[in-house]
Amino acid sequence: MESETLRAALADVVAIPVTPFAADGTVDAGAHRALLRRLLDGGVRTLTPNGNTGEFYALTPEERRALTEATVEEAGERAVVLVGVGHDVPAAVEAARHARETGAHMVMVHQPVHPYVSESGWVAYHRAIAEAVPELGVVPYVRNPALGGARLAELGAACPNVIGVKYAVPDAARFAGFARDAGLDRFVWVAGLAEPYAPSYFASGATGFTSGLVNVSPALSLEMLGALRAGDYPTAMKVWERIRRFEELRAANGNADNVTVVKEALASLGLCRRDIRPPSRELPEAERAEVAAIAAGWPL
Asked: Model-level pTM?
């Protein structure tokens, strides 16, 4: 795909699909495809298999490959596919090359989980992956508040295929400075903390946002996007108010139930099982009714 097509796909609702599991604990391939089709039919045009909402770190390499392949097949010409990759450099490169061979268009590089991450090492890590797949767009996932924008500028100068950034530091002022230090117009800026942070990040230069909530209600996510694109912040904040409690439940206890709440909502709608893999947990019984009530009141 042309670079401008990929950049446009990031300036959108970047959906992070869940990975549904069957009763025996394996990936429920049928439910996964049905959920993807629901997103596509709902107007979603950018899909990210193997993201955090998809339980990336709880999946085996074989499962991640299968999810990539299924997503590319279901997307067809209807959506751009941005595949999550990560772990050690060889594993990330292998996954990125598989994404390329499968027909995906971009890769999102998960924040390195190594306990000792230097800024120069961060650049080297992403550069090794980007240089291995020059045909693909590359999107670093930035969660480290200590990383400076100048380092991203350095990476972008070395790797033209690094075209966007999923910025997930919960600090709008830091984001504004980081984006300008890195090059506001050089990259597509994606608000990586989803709808709750999208209005404030759009005000500082973001043009897209990631979403796990979109699995439940594509209509709400797209409504917020439309309002933000139009600069209609009052309407965007009305959507924000509707989703606030749902997102508060996801963010509670250090995001312990981030994926759990999304799956609980989908289960309440009969779309997949609530099963989730450790170290996450299923939602306690006392909170299930609240999630179901929220989901029942949303446009689907």
From this structure: 0.97
